[in-house]
């Protein structure tokens, strides 16, 4: 994305989250206005959960940067008691309207600030495309704060895009990760137990699925 587009969207390195609220406040329950809205679980996550169905019975899950909420609903279908949060209040309101009868707790919260009462509280944490939605300078904080949510014996499932080039503010959003993210999670006490990647020929990037356990 060029500088003009970043300016138009109001994306600043020192104010990295405000534009999400602007975007969702101008969007609707059909996902119009949300460029990343699948209006369905992410296909890579869907394939994974189909192979691991009903793992959530009696367990808690947390969805990071839940967007329109479909991944959270999929976890609920698989037995989890789900909390899902997003920095955008309007995104959370859209989720509540879309899934009126769901028991998922949709909450507005900011991952950058950390949420201390959730530390080590969740058996399963799901992160799809949130770290890469924020400028590279926040990567360490985001990874630490996500790792902190995972309960003893818990798991973190992550779906992310990965580039070979160095991450710089000028290139995003999105700011695709480097493969070093795996070591960064391990430095916060998680262990990589499952990994797969696929090559995206048009972009020259990779799509990663990584499962960690504490
Ligand atoms: C690229 S979107 C991905 C949304 C969703 N995970 C998906 O795959 O459709 C990134 C999401 O992260 C949210 N987000 C960005 N920064 C955040 C933060 N600091 N705390 C919580 N959510 C954040 C955005 O509002 C947005 O919904």
List keywords for this structure.
single chain, about 210 residues, alpha/beta, Rossmann fold, 7-stranded mixed sheet, 7 helices, 7 strands, about 30% helix, about 25% strand, binds S-adenosylmethionine
Low-confidence stretches: none
CATH topology-level name? Rossmann fold
User: Please, what is the CATH homologous superfamily?
Assistant: Vaccinia Virus protein VP39
Bound molecules: S-adenosylmethionine
User: Percent of residues in helical segments?
Assistant: 25-40%
Q: What proportion of the residues form beta strands (DSSP E)?
A: 25-35%
Describe the secondary structure blueprint for this structure:
Layout lengths: L2 H7 L8 H8 L17 H9 L8 E5 L5 H8 L3 E6 L2 H10 L6 E4 L13 E7 L10 H11 E13 L18 H7 L3 E10 L4 E9 L1
Parallel strand pairs: 1-2, 1-4, 2-3, 4-5
Antiparallel strand pairs: 5-7, 6-7
The site of S-adenosylmethionine has 18 residues, from loops.
Short description:
The chain is of the alpha/beta class. The protein has seven helices and seven strands, in the order αααβαβαββαβαββ.
